[in-house]
Structure formats: C-alpha cells, structure tokens
Amino acid sequence: MMQAAVLLKPGKLEIRETPVPPCPQGGVIVKVKACGICGSDAKMIQSGHRALVYPRILGHEIAGVVAESRIKNFREGDRVQVAPGLRCGKCFQCRKGMDNQCENRGILGFTFDGGFAQYVAVPLEGPIVGALNILPENVGYADATLVEPIACSINAQEKAASAEGDTVLIIGAGPLGLIHCFVARLRGAEKVIIGEIRKDRRKTAGNSWADMVLDPEKGDLLEMIMNETNGRGIDVIIIACSQVGINDGFLKLLTPGGRLSLFSGIASRSCDCRLDSNLVHYNEIVITGAYGCTASQNARAVQLISAGKFPLGELITHRCSLMNIEEGIEHTSSRKGLKSILEVEK
Ligand SMILES: [Zn+2]
Ligand SMILES: [Zn+2]
User: Fold this and answer.
1) Where do the DSSP E strands lie in the chain?
2) Model confidence over 51-84: pLDDT tens digits?
3) Chain centre to alpha carbon of residue 148
4) Which ligand has its closest atom nearest to the C-alpha of 129?
5) At residue 346, does pLDDT exceed 80?
6) 154 part of a folded domain
7) Looking at residue 8, which CATH number applies to its domain?
8) S-S: 162 plus which of 157, 242, 306, 320, CB 3.0-4.6 Å?
9) Are residues 174 and 126 in the same domain?
10) Cα(145)–Cα(195) distance, rounded to whole angstroms?
11) Ligand 2 mean position to 268 CA, how many Å?
12) Which residues surround the ion ligand 2 when the cut-off is CB under 5 Å?
C-alpha cells in the first residue's frame, strides 16, 4: 500500500492508503521524491474540472527514482523527471511534433493518477506513452519539479517566436511569469518587462528577473510601455495570469508583427472577448495559444537546468509533506509566495 492525496470530489482531498499501482507492461513505477503544486492543481482541488474522473491523484510536476521497471531503457534506481503528457506517437498532431495536442492524449495527474503519492505508474510502451528524463547528477529532485513549468514556457515562447533583440512583456509575476522572463532571455530577448499588480511579487521580479517591473493599475499602460520602448512597442506579450482577459489595449502595445501569447487559461468570466480585427490585420499581429509541453521540451528543460541557466533558488518558497499538502495548496492559491513543492518522505 502507499500514501496518496486522493481527490474524491471537488473540495474533498483525502490523505489515504491506496494500493501501489501495478507496473505497466513496458513501463515503470516511479517512487516520487518531489512534486510541484501547480496553480491548476489548486484550482482543480477547489472546483474540479470537467475532464476529471474521481477519485483522482493529482500532481504533474514529478521527480523521483525508478522503483520498478518492465522496460529495458530504465532500471531500478534511475533518478528521473517525469514528462506528464502521454501521447500515442501516431496521430496527425504527434507526427507534427505537437504531442501535447495528441488526439489520444492523457496527462499524469489529470486524466491518469499523478505525483501526489508515494508512487506513480508511467507507461513507456503501448497505445499511449509518457516519457522519462534521466536527471543529471547536478539536478536535485526539488529543482526537477520545475522542469515541466519551464517546458511549458518554452512551448509558449516557441509558438510566440520570441527571439534575439525582442522586447518582451510578461503579464503576471507568479512563478510562471518569472520562468517566462528567463526563457525569454535565453532566447535572446533584449529587454524583459513584467506587469504585476501585487507589490510583493513586483519586488521579487525586480530583484533578479526583469529589466523593468510595472504596476498596470498605476497609470496608463500604453503610455508606460511607449515611454519605455521609445515609442516602438512590444514584440511579444505573454499573459501569465489567469485573471487577465485580453482586449484591444494589449494589441495596441504591440509593434507591427508583434505576438500575443495566451499562456494562462483565463477565468471563464473574462475569457469571452471582442477584439478589433483591423488592429490584427493592419499591424500583422499574431495571437497564439499555448497548452502544456511536449516530451522533447521537457528534455530540453532538464538540460537547461543542468547547465545552470536558471536561477531557480528563489522560485521554491514553500515545501510540505504529503501529510500537510493542504498547506502547500494554500501557499499556491494564496499567491503569497511563489512555488510550493511536495516532498515525499521515505
Ligand atoms: Zn502545471
Ligand atoms: Zn498522438
């Protein structure tokens, strides 16, 4: 048996004994060492999700050690990061390299049981498969929980084509906003600006992440941005806050050829928007979505962390055990700190 945080229905999370999942034929059982608690986990625990089937073990930012293997590429004791997306590898989307949009996809911690438990099963051969990345020696389990969020940011910025010399505006200085800041820099951005309404988060962002931090509620955003960019505007805007609906105001911040990335899912009351399509037309604006990440983006994120490209130290502001996971969820949903991670004892 194992301990797991099981979501029985929206609002009802229970720490209980549950059987260790059987090792999939052509797959592994990973003993969870650490698992990040994502904003989407907090949201799903609170209010459920239409695609969730209960009972469900959430958690998709998983790092651990292989406890049992029924596939030859991995053996017991391997330290791994789990890329949470499961894909078929055969459908049209998979063949295009967009396995995060696989027609037969599954997600560990969402449609399959995930990492808020002592063990998680990962299929690696068969109709739908996940992926494991071996952790280089210099990447600890706690840092490895940040691989998936970094991979999601890479996905968004590839879609938005952030590039050398760009000025990038990120809306929201939560953990993902800060990660975006860094991904933009790695892709050659010349200037990164973060807009955030919370004072504490502006402070962190200003310390070592963004070139400029502003409060979008203090004054006219268009004026602030044009002053800051010598009237040129922004190349890429990334919405990394679920509370901000988009409107023409954002389109007006963009330079011709600018890109707007809808990285965050937007709270349903704000997702219905009307845009001036002529602004898109005349200024050749690209509006793009981004959802999850591919297996290869996970692998690249592991390499970036290992190469020391991310100042990850500041991102993890809370750690909890399985027994007090509620505290971690509260830390995430209160937005008081940044990232909370679950560390699974023994
Ligand atoms: Zn997440
Ligand atoms: Zn597929």
Assistant:
1) 2-9, 12-18, 27-37, 56-57, 61-69, 79-87, 106-107, 119-123, 129-134, 167-171, 191-195, 212-214, 234-239, 254-262, 286-289, 316-320, 339-343
2) 899 999 999 999 999 999 999 999 999 999 999 9
3) 6
4) 2
5) no
6) no
7) 3.90.180.10
8) 157
9) no
10) 25
11) 28
12) 87-88, 91, 94, 102
